[in-house]
């Protein structure tokens, strides 16, 4: 769950779910590799978990087919003029912007400014750019913004920063973001089947990505991305539902978070 929507897919959360299922014994762990299949709103996801001494040491998932929708499309951004972004699907719709062109080197000290500009780009993209999954009309509109550092090439780690609504910097390198980035690079001819790359977040966390193959989504050329990373269990929470609770299904309000001027 995100503050504004239910994403069709999440790479980091898939890693977390697989780790919890195996390390808590919900699904029997098989060493050295346990294979399972999870269903996300965007489609089924195959998972291979490397296991050792009762722990999950790495999770590799084959993400949903990912593809580029628009490359170098102009976007009007108040106070910045016209910028260009790529629109790509990696399980969520991404607007991918050039971080260096916006004046960012993707360092921790820039986190606040990255969050602000990322949300501004997201809102502008939702207003100006149309994107809809050709096989699922419910998956529509840019959900996430990726501020991409210079691509370092195949087998190298490139920096990125992902901003989710309503203006929060993701601590993860993001599996869907890496899938979208590889799809855009593949569409440009810079990555091919079998090629790998890594994404490094602002805090230094990394996911590795590889293009397993090509496929088609609604007549559009797409890639089959594999994403690898690791998750850790940090707590156990118990949720209760009292039969006298007047809001058993929760409630929905407009955004109550402080705005961009918060300190």
Return the CATH topology of the domain at 67-209.
Answer: Diaminopimelate Epimerase, Chain A, domain 1
Give the C-alpha Rg: 19 Å
CATH architecture of the domain at 67-209: Roll
Question: Which structural class do you get from the secondary structure elements?
Answer: alpha+beta
Number of helices: 3
- Whole-number average pLDDT? 94
Beta-strand percentage range? 35-45%
- Shape summary: globular
Order of helices and strands: HEEEEEEHEEEEEHEEE
Residues in helices, as a percent range: 10-25%
What is the CATH first-level class name of the domain at 67-209? Alpha Beta
Distance between the termini: 26 Å
CATH superfamily of the domain at 67-209: Diaminopimelate Epimerase, Chain A, domain 1
pLDDT below 50 for ≥5 consecutive residues: which ranges? none
Number of strands: 14
Largest sheet: 12 strands, mixed
Multimeric state? single chain
Give an overview of the whole structure.
The structure is a single chain. By secondary structure, the protein is an alpha+beta fold. It has a domain at 67-209: Diaminopimelate Epimerase, Chain A, domain 1 (Roll). The chain is 17% helix and 38% strand. It contains 3 helices and 14 strands. Strands 1, 2, 3, 4, 5, 6, 9, 10, 11, 12, 13 and 14 form a 12-stranded mixed beta sheet that branches. The chain has a two-stranded antiparallel ribbon with strand order 7-8. The radius of gyration is 19 Å and the shape is globular. 39% of the residues are buried.
């Amino acid at each position: 769950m995100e503050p504004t929507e239910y994403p069709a897919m999440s790479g980091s959360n898939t890693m977390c779910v697989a780790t919890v299922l195996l390390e808590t014994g919900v699904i029997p762990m098989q060493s050295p590799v346990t294979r399972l299949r999870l269903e996300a709103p965007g489609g089924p996801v195959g998972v291979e978990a490397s296991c050792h001494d009762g722990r999950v040491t790495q999770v590799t998932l084959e993400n949903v087919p990912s593809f580029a929708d628009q490359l170098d499309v102009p976007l009007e951004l108040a106070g910045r003029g016209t910028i260009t972004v790529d629109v790509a699907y990696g399980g969520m719709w991404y607007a991918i912007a050039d971080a260096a062109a916006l004046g960012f080197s993707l360092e921790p000290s820039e986190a606040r400014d990255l969050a602000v500009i990322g949300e501004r780009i997201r809102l502008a993209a939702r207003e100006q750019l149309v994107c809809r999954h050709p096989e699922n009309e419910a998956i529509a509109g840019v959900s996430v913004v990726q501020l991409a550092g210079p691509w370092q090439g195949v087998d190298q780690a490139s920096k990125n920063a992902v901003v989710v609504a309503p203006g929060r910097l993701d601590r993860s390198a993001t599996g869907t973001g890496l899938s979208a980035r590889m799809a855009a690079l593949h569409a440009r001819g810079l990555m091919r089947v079998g090629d790998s790359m890594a994404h490094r977040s602002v805090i230094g966390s990394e996911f590795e990505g590889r293009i397993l193959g090509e496929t088609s989504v609604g007549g559009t050329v797409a890639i089959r991305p594999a994403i690898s990373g690791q998750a850790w269990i940090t707590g156990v929470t118990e949720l209760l539902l009292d039969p006298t609770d007047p809001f058993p299904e929760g409630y929905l309000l407009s955004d109550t978070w402080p705005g961009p001027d918060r300190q």
